Amino acid sequence: MSDQPARWTRSTIYPDMWADPDDDPRNSEGTSPDGELATLQDFLTNYRLTLRMKCEGLDAEQLARRSVPPSTMSLLGLLRHLAEAERDWRNWISDGDPLPKLYGKRDADFDEAVSEQAEVDAAYSALAREQDATDAALAEHPDLGVRLGKDGIAVRELLVHRIEEYARHCGHADLLRECIDGRVGQ
Question: What range does the record give for the signal peptide (predicted)?
Answer without folding.
Answer: none
